[in-house]
Amino acid sequence: KAGVTQTPRYLIKTRGQQVTLSCSPISGHRSVSWYQQTPGQGLQFLFEYFSETQRNKGNFPGRFSGRQFSNSRSEMNVSTLELGDSALYLCASSPTGENGEKLFFGSGTQLSVL
Amino acid sequence: AQSVTQPDIHITVSEGASLELRCNYSYGATPYLFWYVQSPGQGLQLLLKYFSGDTLVQGIKGFEAEFKRSQSSFNLRKPSVHWSDAAEYFCAVGARGGATNKLIFGTGTLLAVQP
What we know:
Radius of gyration of chain A: 13 Å
Structural class of chain B: mainly beta
Strand content of chain A: over 45%
Structural class of chain A: mainly beta
Order of helices and strands of chain B: EEEEEEEEEEEE
Number of strands of chain B: 12
Oligomer: heterodimer
Order of helices and strands of chain A: EEEEEEEEEEE
């Protein structure tokens, strides 16, 4: 069974641009969560989707958005990029919608903003 | 507010020595508790979790953790460290009974293993 796939693996953008990151969950998983990982802040929860509905959102500005498609694949978008958006963005999928007990993480997308 | 504290940013141990990584949490009730490991350039892998029952839980790769309600702690231990255990370790809490997979993570402990 394939794991959680995140594309692209690396991304370089400049300030003011926008970016879209993709996450393909494990087959059969309906829940997708996104996290931002930085050396200073650690892992911060961005948002969570379950069956195409956003159920939970972290404390990030509106420049960060996401969506989930009917096949459970998810995308997150960051508009008007800032230097501080440079981070590893991790996606996690789960077959269930609760408790965080069956989360499987992808290897992440490393975003560098210049 | 819910939070997780990992007091040790870096720890260095010798191969074969024992290991204990500390984790303290702040939560209104007994949360679900997790330990994850992250190797360089990789995602997170679940080591073990505590939901209920026996407060000493066993995980993969020879790790164990003990939940102590009175101390709000969930420390990770391993009796004999291997060089391949060098990685970053994250403690996390999840909401009990909530319809969410949201986890709150500590800032991590970077483990170095000396030969």
